[in-house]
Amino acid sequence: MNKKLQALIFDCDGVLVDTERDGHRVAFNQAFAKKGLNIEWDMHLFGDIEKDYCERVTNIRPKEYHE
User: Fold this and answer.
1) Lowest mean pLDDT: which of 1-5, 16-20, 35-39, 42-46?
2) pTM score of the predicted model
3) 66 or 39: which carries more pLDDT confidence?
4) CA-to-CA distance for 59 and 2, rounded, in angstroms?
5) Catalytic annotation present for 13
6) CA 38, CA 42: separation in Å to the nearest integer?
7) Which of 3, 18, 29, 36 is the most buried (most CB within 10 A)?
8) Catalytic pick from 13, 22, 42, 48?
């Protein structure tokens, strides 16, 4: 059977699903615990880490982070 491709979806982290906070943050916390580290990133702290990273990489503070 010969099917034609009708669509192709490209996704970056956090565009279609909030994988940054609900996926990556949870995975980081699990890795910290597995290594016996007493570190846990809550959503507020993880959001601050994301903002700082974005600002350092791009040298621009995203509009949604302006307060």
Assistant:
1) 16-20
2) 0.58
3) 39
4) 48
5) yes
6) 13
7) 29
8) 13
